[in-house]
Amino acid sequence: MPDPAARTITDRLLAALASRDLRRIEATLSPDCSWRNVPHPAVDGRDAVMALLAPIVTWSDRVQWDVLSAAYDESTAWLERADRFRIDGAEHTVLCNGVFEVDAGAGTVRSVRDYVDLGEWRARVGPTLEAMAQRPAGEVINRHLAAVTARDPVALAADYAPDAVLRRGADEHRGWRAIADYFDSVPARLGGLHFSSQLSSQEPTTVRWEITDGTNAVVARGTDRYRVAGGRIVEQTVELDTPDF
What's this model's pTM, rounded to 2 decimal places? Predict the structure, then answer.
């Protein structure tokens, strides 16, 4: 007997959350979905739900929602969970019990009512998110540069604001989704090339970088200028000294 639709759809949502890719998460939600962290009021509409989820998802190095017990029918899933977020080297786990209503035809989540111990949430996660939002610009930029070296496309986009702008030569990528789409191409384009960078001590939001091949010949070189606010990159301009790689 096939799994109920609600199980299939909520499994897709949990997998999308684990990917930390906002585009995958968005694809599991109905355009008119709502999400309520009880006793707070619900946020309505997919854009509002994504704004609710994005900060902790993108600042996490790992997200895993473990299902402790569950019940399903075609339109509803009841999930008791341990939601795990690894942020800045520490794991934070919060117990939740959620009711997920789905649109079986569209294969999306229509609404979530999540019952969370808010005291535990604030004690465990609140200070960490506040600290991430107050990070100095150099720390935010260095985290991004480490993702370039690691060739991790999700981590490359993680520290950009939802409405950030990335200008690279004559190209402009506006908004988190467009920036993430661009960074999807970076690991393959870098291939076996070597990326090196240096954050300026005089101008803490300026980075000189260079890409070289196996013979140390320069493939591309340029300067990045960043604007950082609230612990996120809101604007980046790349000035190329050579053709792009």
Answer: 0.89
